[in-house]
Design goal:
With 1179 residues, the protein is α+β, with helices and mostly antiparallel strands. Helix content is 30%, strand content 20%. α12 (330-336) packs antiparallel against α13 and α20 (631-641) packs across α21 (670-683).
Length: 1179
């Protein structure tokens, strides 16, 4: 709580319990164990560093910086408070639990299990039941719920570990973690015990491994699950025992436990791993990210060598996720046995692997999309070669055959995150303060929308599975007969307008019968039941008859261009010089390059998905609790849906906080809120609707994809003479924020460069049959930044120069900082920040060290990149947000309401600090109320990074009015106290200034003075092109933006050339926030935004199939970065002594701009790739 290790707080209690469980279970951990403990926790806000550092503060080998962090807070003695697990009863008793049609059996003997299996033919065996997350459809939808479950955790014959007969034997009732513990306990008898433990620890994550049975993992691998456990164990020569209908056991090598060789009725009983004191073992995997991701390819390898001849006497080569199920390569093993580990043997072994497996290669359909029909197949086919090469490297080094650089051995490992160097200044009233609800966020005591404590029904949406078509009929009969169902809500139930989007009538709340489907994931109906699970089950029973499904569907930018399918209101946005002038400048340029590229999208992936709770009120009114960034927009649209146009005040929208938002909760929350409201209206009973992660990705669009072409002219020294860009943005099926976003993309491309004074960009807004793309953090700028730096890097590679040289040669200065639209970039300092961060990070010295590293290492390469940034901010999104400040005369406490929403950005603490600073009261005396449309009218969008400053200024203005009211009372009390002090020598030196509660009491008290201690404030700047006078005429400057922020970053990375794995070694960020209102909050925002950029530029990838359906639905398929992907060393500095004269209290916005600085990582990776060998080679 005190280390800014939370922002929205939705994931934080899980992080706390993760650390607590690690400490209670294992005592004082190592720093590496603290890092590894985050292998199952995702955060979308913080950048992880503060979380990991807090955990490391308890470690026995904690860094001095983390020890200092621990010293600031109450110590937790992990050794003294080590958890004592409740022991398993010596003689458990057989038990049966029954609820409705579900029965849970807990037998204690194997014979009981067999008897139950014979009697209950459709029963399922479970331990932790952790596979449920993958096969939840079998439990919750389509009537497939299992009714008989047999728990194996109390069966004596299945719960044991023993080491005898030359092997370790582990019962099938034991967990994966038990296997690891057994190996470590017998590491003196198995030379590669620790290596095998590390291999098994790549399965899932530690919380799952503690509950999941090894036997369950083996069983689901038979049916196609991409296991890490099974190939790792096969490589260790493991065998398994099983029974069928009787108690007679059979034992087979683990590789033979598969369909066709062992009957489906087999019940595993034992796992056996041979004890072996010689040999060399390694396990390799490459995945979308280092943790919690299924492997692209994985494999286990083992050899034992004759110590005298160094020839292989025993070998195992296993590939898991490659062919159809984990298999040994008999041909490769035959090549190895009797041979030495040299280049010739390696080549023969690699060829043998491909002979054995390539005819059975299992193509990953997941990655075969409409944009990339080949998927990742070619990459995956290369990985066995890389694994074999790496194994030879490590085996040669370990067996004394050949020396290798330690830097090149093995896979890149996630190391502990160092506590970064944070540099900032604190001014009185602007201190580094934690969020007001920090303790509640960390303990889980705070409430989110779905926690609204009212008796309610639960809704589950029925979404379209096709991109186009006409609905002929919706059959709800089976769903209505399903258990617990109260209603199925369709378009026929809407009392008002069937419209839930920005443009009235463009996006229906529910697609009606006879209506045209616009996209996959479009809302068709809402099933309402007494529980979430019952609603979800019944939703699978709704049948939708669609005519012409997917006929004419436009699901790519290319298809939209070919069909000339455009968003009418955002069809073209052009910025810069006249096209003919740019063409003339290009024609006269010394050199000209042309290029084209694509920019992918990104899911917002807030930890709290779209959710709403609708509560009917009197007079047909309603209170709508919505996880929203725009309460008043939500109120206005949903009021229209409910038929309350002109009576919209009968609908109140409230939001205490959102568990992450990042843009889509400005608009894409409305369809969910509207569905809940219509259901509550019809049933006259509260209804909750909360999307799960799969529905969120299916229905809620994300970041816009782009295609862009460019032509750039430049001199031989890299000076750019002219540039033109033509881009096409994928808006999806409706307008949403696309018009604004295409404009911001266009403005962002110019960046900090002059372009020779000749620059033009044309952006076409394209309409497709995909879920409407929307505002996502940084709003068009990440795509613009990618466009810019792609052009810069193309010039650099053509000239054979570093990209940094091209950037510096073309960077604007304070003297000529002007946008292509002729807007002056006041207080421009991007060039200074760029130079400073390069100097402070020792860029030149480290670049030389990178070159030396690359010369010394063939298969590991490093890269280092420095990038500048400018980001334009527009007040249009939040301008006009108001505030209400109330002072209680009885005690001087203050209640503040403002027009923003707390989404994790720290708006409440900043508003409270400004109120305390302006009024002169204690911060602890201030409460910031929930966002409520009844209290603050006309609340604008919380977005664009500027809402905090807009609300702070609105609050400051209200406080200034209150100060004017309080001043006569303060003056009277001051003069009175001065007289009293003067009359009493004992009080000499005492301050005559009255306390704030004293002043408030003097101004308003019972039977006393009755001042109005409530004031409103509003901030409506008039700088941009959107502001008008009373006649609607523009009275601002002719620009979209109001001011600019600037920054710069340097990042260094390491690349494994053989696998494509990367690690960010270090990142340094320098950013201009003016004079920060709360530097701790601002630095946390910088780290979080940088983490987002890492995800976008390096890891995340929405995948669409030909139907327009998102294949990356939920956490199983979509992979935001985790702690292992963060820079190992991260330094952030806020530029000091730098008040922004036109800013709110001298500050600038910060939430979104640092996102683009993560491009420094991508730029460094590109350099590392460029330095990699183009030819092959052998060990």
């Amino acid at each position: 709580a005190g280390n800014h290790a939370m922002q929205c707080g939705f994931c934080t209690p899980g992080m706390v319990m993760n650390a607590y469980a690690m400490l209670k279970e294992g005592g004082k951990p190592s720093a590496q164990q603290c890092m590894d403990s985050y292998d199952g926790n995702i955060c979308r806000c913080t950048g992880y560093r503060n979380l990991v550092n807090v955990s490391e503060s308890f470690a026995q080998d904690a860094s001095p910086e983390c020890q200092d962090l621990g010293a600031k807070f109450t110590a937790f003695d992990a050794d003294a408070e080590k958890l004592s697990q409740i022991p398993r009863p010596e003689r458990p008793i057989s038990k049966v639990f029954k609820m409705s049609d579900f029965t849970w059996y807990a037998p204690t003997t194997l014979s009981e299990v067999q008897g139950l299996r014979q009697k209950l033919k459709r029963s399922v065996m479970v331990l932790g039941d952790t596979a449920k997350g993958m096969r939840q459809a079998a439990y919750e939808t389509f009537g497939g719920k299992q009714s008989d479950v047999i728990f194996l955790g109390n069966v004596d014959e299945l719960n044991f570990v023993e080491a005898k007969g030359g092997k370790i034997t582990i019962g099938a009732g034991m967990r994966i973690q038990d296997v690891c513990d057994a190996l470590r306990n017998h590491s003196d008898k198995i030379v590669y015990a620790e290596d095998l433990c590390k291999a098994l620890s790549t399965a899932a994550q530690r919380h799952v491994r503690a509950e999941a049975g090894w036997a369950g993992n083996v069983m689901i691998t038979r049916t196609g699950f991409p296991s890490d456990l099974v190939p790792a164990l096969i490589a260790a020569n493991a065998s398994v025992s099983f029974v069928e209908e009787s108690l007679e056991e059979r034992t087979v090598p683990l590789e033979d436990f598969k369909q066709g060789k062992v009957p489906a009725s087999a019940l595993l009983t034992k796992l056996s791993i041979p004890l072996k004191k010689t040999g060399f073992y390694r396990y390799y995997r490459v995945a979308h990210r280092k943790w919690l991701a299924t492997a692209f390819v994985n494999g286990g390898f083992f050899v034992d060598l004759d110590p005298a001849t160094k020839k292989v006497t025993e070998a195992r080569v296993v590939l898991g996720v490659y062919a159809y199920g984990p298999q040994r390569s008999a041909s490769a093993e035959e090549c190895l046995v009797g041979s030495t580990l040299d280049t010739a043997t390696l080549k023969r072994a690699i060829d043998a692997v491909h002979r054995d497996f390539d005819n059975e290669f299992a193509s990953e359909q997941q990655y075969k999309t409409i944009d990339n029909p080949m998927g990742k197949d070619e990459f995956r086919k290369m990985l066995p070669d890389s694994f074999m090469f790496k194994f030879f490297q490590e085996a040669q080094a370990a067996c004394g055959i050949k020396a290798w650089s330690e830097a090149e051995l093995g896979l890149i490992k996630p190391l502990p995150l160092k506590r970064g160097t944070l540099k900032f200044e604190e001014l009185p009233g602007r201190e580094n303060k934690a969020q007001l609800s920090a303790k509640g966020l960390t303990t889980g005591q705070v409430k989110y929308t779905d926690d609204t404590q009212v008796p309610s029904y639960y809704g589950y949406l029925v979404l379209s599975s096709c991109a186009t078509g006409k609905i002929k009929h919706i059959d709800t009969s089976a769903a209505l007969q399903s258990e617990g169902v109260k209603a199925v809500i369709t378009a026929e139930d809407i009392p008002g307008a069937n419209s839930a989007g920005f443009v009235p009538g463009e996006e229906p709340l529910f697609c009606p019968v006879g209506g045209d489907i616009m996209t996959t994931g479009q809302q068709i109906a809402l099933v309402v039941a007494t529980s979430y699970r019952l609603a979800k089950k019944a939703a699978g029973l709704v049948k939708v008859d669609v005519e012409g499904a997917n006929v004419g569907a436009i699901t790519t930018i290319e298809a939209a261009i070919a069909a000339d399918s455009k968003l009418a209101g955002a069809a073209l946005c052009s910025i810069g010089e006249d096209g003919e002038a740019v063409n003339a400048a290009l024609k006269s340029s010394e050199q000209v390059l042309k290029g084209s590229s694509y920019i992918i999208g990104q899911h917002a992936f807030p930890m709290e998905k779209q959710s709403a709770c609708a509560v009917p009120e009197e007079r047909t009114g309603m209170t709508l609790y919505s996880s929203t960034q725009a309460p008043d927009f939500c109120r206005a649209v949903v009021a229209g849906i409910l038929g309350l146009h002109g009576k919209g005040s009968l609908l109140t929208v409230k939001c205490t906080r959102a568990g992450g938002a990042f843009g889509p909760k400005n608009s894409r929350n409305v369809p969910v809120a509207g569905a809940a409201a219509v259901a509550a209206h019809k049933l006259d009973f509260p209804v909750k609707v909360a999307l799960d992660a799969c529905q969120e990705h299916a229905a809620v669009g994300g970041r816009h994809q782009f295609k862009f072409d460019y032509e750039v002219g430049f001199k031989k020294d890299g000076t750019i003479q002219a540039c033109k860009v033509e881009a096409w943005g994928n808006g999806g099926c409706t307008h949403d924020f696309s018009g604004f976003l295409f404009g911001e993309y266009a403005e962002a491309v110019a960046s900090v460069y002059g372009w020779g004074g000749h620059f033009r960009i044309d952006v076409h807004g394209m309409k497709t049959n995909l879920p409407s793309n929307s505002a996502v953090r940084s709003f068009g700028n990440p795509q613009g930044y990618f466009t810019t730096e792609t052009i810069i890097e193309h010039i650099a590679s053509t000239l054979g120069k570093p990209a940094e040289e091209i950037r510096e040669r073309n960077m604007l200065t304070k003297a000529n900082a002007m946008t292509p639209e002729k807007q002056e970039m006041e207080f421009f300092n991007a060039d200074m920040l760029y130079a400073k961060v390069k100097a402070d990070s020792r860029y030149t010295e480290r670049a030389a060290a990178v070159e030396e590293f690359n010369r010394a290492n063939r298969w590991r390469k490093r890269g280092i990149s420095a990038v500048p940034l400018r980001y334009g901010h527009s007040y249009v999104y939040a301008a006009g947000s108001g505030a209400l400040v109330n002072i209680n005369g009885s005690d001087g406490s203050v209640v503040v309401h403002h027009g923003g929403v707390e989404i994790g950005q720290g708006i409440h603490i900043k508003v409270a600090q400004v109120a305390a600073l302006t009024l002169g009261c204690d911060l602890e005396a201030i409460k910031v109320g929930e966002s409520n449309t009844d209290v603050v009218p006309n609340m604008r969008f919380t977005g664009g990074s500027i809402t905090s400053e807009v609300c702070c200024e609105a609050v400051r203005r209200a406080c200034l009015d209150l100060n004017a009211t309080l001043e006569p009372h303060r003056k009277f009390l001051r003069e009175k106290k001065q007289a009293e002090i003067a009359a009493d020598p004992a009080r000499a030196g005492e301050s005559p200034e009255p306390s704030f509660p004293e002043v408030a009491a003097a101004a308003n008290s019972v039977l006393g003075h009755q001042e109005k201690l409530a004031a409103t404030g509003i901030f409506a700047p008039t700088n941009n092109k959107y502001t008008t006078d009373v006649e609607g005429k523009p009275n601002g400057k002719p620009f979209h933006g109001d001011y600019f922020t600037f920054g710069a970053a340097v990042s260094e990375v390491e690349l494994d050339v053989l696998t494509g794995q990367t690690q960010v070694i270090r990142s340094d960020v320098l950013f201009d926030v003016g004079q920060s209102i709360n530097p701790g909050i601002d630095i946390a925002q910088i780290e979080g935004a940088f983490c987002w950029g890492l995800g976008y530029y390096m890891h995340e990838e929405p995948l669409m199939d030909a139907r327009g359906a998102d294949r990356t639905q939920g956490v199983w398929e979509y992979k935001p970065p985790m702690a292992a992907e963060m820079p190992r060393e991260f330094s952030v500095e806020l530029l000091r002594d730098n008040p922004f004269p036109k800013g709110i209290l001298g500050s600038k916005a910060v939430g979104e701009p640092p996102f683009m600085l993560a491009y420094s990582v991508l730029g460094a990776v590109k350099k590392a790739i460029g330095s990699a060998p183009q030819e092959g080679g052998g060990p």
